[in-house]
Design a protein that fits this description.
This protein is an alpha/beta fold. It has one domain. It is built from eleven helices and 20 strands. The protein has a ten-stranded mixed beta sheet, covered by helices on one side. Strands 3, 4, 6, 7, 9, 11, 13, 15, 17 and 19 form a ten-stranded mixed beta sheet that branches. The protein is globular and about 70 Å long.
């Protein structure tokens, strides 16, 4: 049984953890140490989100706040640890080994040079360890680290205080990257729960283009916490296609935040899929900072048992003539609990905004639950904005149609569930990722429940 931590004492617990990291990363620049200090001070001031906080009232973070997480074992000089052959083989299998991708692999939050590869990338593109980039390219990192994901929930500040390493992707102006870049984050704990705080910083220069896959996996069965933050700057006329996969183990906790800033005429497309962790929360926010920018957010969450899958999105239309399109779908079975909170802000000067937001949820049991709250806050008058949510069970007429043609009940249900989810999966442009998600979907398809579906015993 996991020991519990008094929440107030937990704040000083993380302060001691930050001090422990200082001894590990003794050579880090002074500005980064000050960044950590500011982040820890903000976390100490805010504490963990409380149930009274409207943004967190459906996210049960009590188990996270009360668990005395430790730093991952094996952090030494340079924060690297040896990876055994068997472990390396399991990690390699997670990274689409047959696909032509560049890969940045992080084990318990630390970059693994031996498992990573930049094959296929143009020479001008800089990718690798964020910790190394801080030393090698401080003029690129320092102005952006913490600037895009400023403020936000206290978990963002906790990440800043405890981050050891992370991913760095820099695409210079005018460079179009044909090879997808896969950021693979793996936790390995099987013993005491550990907290892993990976950070990612991605910058795409003017007229540049790149595809980034960001995936999270667990090798062990520990109830550890991944507290991840990614900051993204998409420059003028640039394009980023971003696929985020949260596939961690059933015992894990996952809290993530992705913050994006879009320049003039830029394009950002997100495909966010969550199927893992006992408690999972992802905050995805984009600021439309330049005219004629376009933001697309597609999401899919699939949960069963007693999983909590929480998706919070914010699209901030700060300037005129921008478009945003958002479609999130959920499939919930057992006693799973889904949360969707989507906000679209249209500021007073953001005339000619075109925004559409939709959340659709499929409940496969009478004990599954969804709390959905699509929101529009519009302060301009020349706009086209719509939002809506639909929640339901499998369509009885469609089931009857399929069964009338000799299809068994279980197969008919699975056909409809597959069609519902495939609307999101089919939008992903990478066939290897689509195939992987299809396998996960097929493995998750439920058995028929005679009680819920009203069929004879």
């Amino acid at each position: 049984m996991t020991a519990q931590l008094d929440i107030a004492a937990g704040l000083s617990h993380y302060g001691r953890m930050r001090d422990e990291l200082r001894s590990v990363r003794a050579g880090e620049p002074e500005w980064l140490a000050e960044f950590r200090d500011r982040a820890l001070a903000r976390f100490d001031n805010l504490g963990f989100p409380a149930p009274a906080d409207e943004e967190w009232r459906f996210t049960p973070i009590g188990p996270i706040a009360e668990t005395p997480f430790a730093l991952p074992p094996g952090l030494g000089a340079g924060c690297a640890r040896r990876i055994g052959d068997a472990e390396a083989a399991r990690i390699a299998a997670l990274a689409y080994p047959d696909a032509q991708h560049a890969r940045l692999v992080f084990v318990d939050g630390v970059y693994s040079q031996e498992l990573s590869s930049a094959n296929g990338l143009p020479r001008e593109v800089e990718v690798g360890s964020l910790a190394q980039a801080i030393v090698r390219s401080p003029s690129l990192v320092r102005p952006w680290l913490g600037a895009i994901a400023s403020g936000g929930p206290s978990f963002t500040s906790l990440n800043g205080a405890l981050m050891v390493d992370g991913a760095f992707v820099y695409v210079p102006a005018g460079v179009v990257v044909a090879t997808p870049i896969h950021l693979v984050f793996v936790t390995t704990g099987d013993a005491d729960p550990a907290i892993v705080s990976p950070r990612a910083l991605a910058m795409v220069g003017e007229s540049g283009a790149v595809t980034i896959i960001e995936s999270y996996h667990s090798l062990g069965r520990s109830a550890g916490l991944t507290n991840a933050v990614m900051e993204v700057d998409v420059g003028p006329s640039a394009s980023l296609d971003h696929c985020r996969l949260q596939l961690e183990g059933a015992e894990a906790y996952h809290v993530g935040r992705t913050a994006i800033r879009l320049g003039r005429d830029s394009r950002y497309t997100s495909h966010s899929v969550a199927t893992g962790a006992s408690v999972s929360r992802h905050d995805l926010g984009a600021v439309m900072g330049g005219e004629n920018a376009e933001c697309t957010m597609n999401g899919l969450y699939i949960g069963g048992d007693r999983q909590l899958l929480d998706s919070h999105t914010v699209i901030d239309h700060a300037v005129p003539n921008c478009e945003s399109h958002e479609l999130y779908k959920g499939i919930l079975n057992g006693r799973a609990h889904g949360v969707f909170n989507g906000k679209v802000y249209v500021r007073p000067d953001a005339q000619k905004t075109n925004a559409k937001q939709t959340n659709q949820v499929l409940l496969l049991s009478d004990t599954a639950r969804i709390d959905t709250k699509p929101q529009l806050e519009i302060f301009a008058d020349d706009v086209r904005c719509t939002h809506g949510a639909t929640i339901g069970q499998l369509d009885a007429d469609s089931l009857f149609y399929l069964r009338s043609r000799g299809i068994a009940l279980e197969d008919a249900r699975n056909v409809l569930i597959h069609a519902f989810a495939s609307d999101i999966i089919s939008r992903i442009g990478l066939p290897e990722v689509r195939a992987h998600l299809e396998d996960i979907l097929l493995a998750s398809l439920p058995k028929p429940s005679s009680v819920f579906w009203g069929t004879p015993e």
